[in-house]
Amino acid sequence: MKSFIADFHIHSVLSPCGDLLMTPQNIINRSLEIGLDLIAITDHNSAENIGVALDLAKGTPLTIIPGMEVETVEEIHLICLFDTLQQVLLWQDKVYDSLPDFKNNEEIFGPQLLTDHSDDYIGRVERLLLTATTLSINDVIKEVKDLGGIAIPSHIDKPNYSIISNLGFIPPDLDGSIFEISSKTKISKVIDKFSTIDNYSFISNSDAHYLHDIKKSMKLYMKAPKVKEMELALKGVNGRKTEIM
Ligand SMILES: [Zn+2]
Ligand SMILES: [Zn+2]
User: Fold this and answer.
1) Ligand nearest to the Cα of 71, by number
2) Alpha carbon distance 163, 75 (integer Å)
3) For residues 223 and 220, what is the distance between their CA atoms, to the nearest angstrom?
4) pTM for this structure?
5) 139, 176 contact by CB (below 8 A)
């Protein structure tokens, strides 16, 4: 069993709310500097910077999990994690098909920037990414699972864009077993409020929009930095385990 220090929720310059310094190379450098082994880049409704990020991390001790933070029709955020670039790009196709075709207003929302292998800005995504898709939370969980990934409701303790704030309850038929809580919140406080979630596993991440937000969020003991292993670690199967840092 190996140990991995991780942060599975980081926004790049492709997220309109992400700081302009959140380029893939800067995210990699900062993650290595603070001692992370495993990160996920999770931009809003898009994965267009993942390919470059994976290439730039090659040959370093850092592993990047291809990810995305999707917004459902109920305006609930979920982080979606995959093992391969191909999987996340297939997922991106589905998300783009389900995203209303509005143009981004940079003055209001900020730019949605693409970068190259020299870490320079090379363009932008013109359609607005920071908006709800037509996919339901159950659609997202099922379709991500069908592609071999995992979809985890984001920051369930937050007053916006979370399953608890937007639905007011956890649907009994929800096909998921992991929730994300914000790094500053105590799990016991969330469980006290919603006793129906005490059989779920929890991850905690930075939800970084600035380089200094990236942090050592979780420690996972597992065989490999793979999505399936992460699920097993969260369930504590066969000696695997996780700790919130
Ligand atoms: Zn979010
Ligand atoms: Zn986020």
Assistant:
1) 1
2) 9
3) 10
4) 0.95
5) no
The helix/strand/coil state of 219 is strand
The number of the ligand nearest the C-alpha atom of 206 reads 2
Structure token pair of residue 195: 């006793």
pLDDT digits (tens, 9 = 90+) for 74-105: 999 999 999 999 999 999 999 999 999 999 99
Ligand 2: centre distance to CA 238 (Å): 31
Tokens of 143: 């379709």
Nearest listed ligand to the Cα of residue 205? 2
Separation of CA 196 and ligand 1 centre (Å): 22
Long-range contacts of residues 198-201, Cβ cutoff 8 Å, at least 24 apart: 200/176, 201/177, 201/234, 201/235, 201/242
Centre of ligand 2 from the C-alpha of residue 239, in Å: 30
Task: For residue 238, report the distance from its CA to the centre of ligand 1, in Å.
Answer: 32
> 114 C-alpha vs ligand 2 centroid, how far in Å?
18
Which ligand is in closest contact with the Cα of 7? 2
Q: How far apart are CA 9 and CA 121, in angstroms?
A: 22
Q: Do residues 242 and 231 lie in contact, with contact meaning Cβ atoms separated by under 8 Å?
A: no
Chain-centroid distance, C-alpha 142: 17
Q: CB count, 10 Å around CB of 171?
A: 12
Question: At a CB cut-off of 8 Å and minimum separation 6, what does 84 contact?
Answer: 66, 148
For 136-173, write each residue's pLDDT tens digit.
999 999 999 999 999 999 999 888 999 988 888 888 78
Residue pair 108/128 in contact (Cβ under 8 Å)? The answer is no
